[in-house]
Design goal:
Number of helices: 7
Number of strands: 11
Strand order of the largest sheet: 4-11-5-10-9-8-7-6
CATH architecture of the largest domain: 3-Layer(aba) Sandwich
Largest sheet: 8 strands, mixed
Order of helices and strands: HEEEHEHEEHHEEEHEHE
CATH class of the largest domain: Alpha Beta
Distance between the termini: 35 Å
């Protein structure tokens, strides 16, 4: 896949930024910058031949740009970032699953519902924020409703309470991305994230995709590997040194 998963993620951020009205493309990079640096606040799509790294650092320090940069593995870009007073803050795995009949779920997923109203979108934002520990504005989620079926959002319940979330995004190459798989802390360990992931794999089949992709932490990588996902490069995040 050669880092296709990471580039898919950048397309996902761009779509969210366009719908939310906070996407900008400048010389050598793109960024999404919603208010109060809420999700998804990121600089990405860096072109090392066009970008002025000193200006990038200055704009981030002054709050003009988001505080975080996301890149696919690129030795040259990483050397230039380190040279211009940036630091690496995290590394997560891009992963992909080649879809075949054996992977198509048969469950009807009665505990999962699509987010199709403003009230459900607000609930999604609340659950996602609790799950991931960062701010997510309801307006950002509301803007994604009825987005030509490219983006569909889901909520999962347990014993009648809404406690998990997930997003499926169909990119321009007909690859389906699984995003924002989260469960609020008090309901973790019950397999709800796996149920949501399996539901979104089914949605990938409905999209007509041959491949599903996602980004996983180290602990998530072990779980997704057991589901048949393979590693496809890394997403590396950088921020400015204080």
């Amino acid at each position: 896949m050669n880092n296709y998963t990471i580039n898919h993620l950048f397309e996902f951020w761009e779509c969210i930024g366009i719908k939310g009205g906070f996407f900008t493309q400048e010389g050598g990079y793109q960024y999404t910058h919603p208010r109060n640096s809420s999700w998804p606040s990121k600089v990405f799509g860096i072109n090392s031949e066009r970008i002025d790294f000193e200006q990038l650092n200055l704009k981030m320090r002054n709050g003009i740009l988001p505080k975080s940069i996301g890149i696919a593995e690129d030795e040259l870009v990483e050397k230039l970032l380190l040279k211009h007073n940036f630091k690496k803050t995290s590394v997560v795995k891009g992963m992909f699953l080649t879809l075949s009949k054996e992977h198509r779920p048969t469950d009807q997923f009665p505990t999962i519902q699509q987010v199709d109203t403003r009230s459900k979108a607000i609930e999604f934002a609340t659950i996602a924020a609790k799950s991931f520990g960062y701010e997510i504005y309801p307006e950002t989620i509301i803007s994604l409703l009825n987005y030509d079926s490219k983006i569909r959002l889901y909520l999962g319940s347990h014993n009648g309470a809404l406690v998990s979330c997930g997003i499926i995004f169909l990119d321009d190459n007909k690859v389906s991305g699984i995003h924002m798989i989260g469960t609020i802390p008090e309901y973790r360990g019950l397999g709800l994230g796996k149920i949501m992931t399996t539901k979104l794999i089914l949605e990938a089949f409905k999209n007509g995709s041959n491949t599903a992709v996602l980004v996983a932490s180290e602990s998530g990588e072990r779980i997704y590997s057991k589901m048949g996902f393979n590693v496809d490069g890394n997403l590396r995040s950088y921020s400015i040194k204080e």
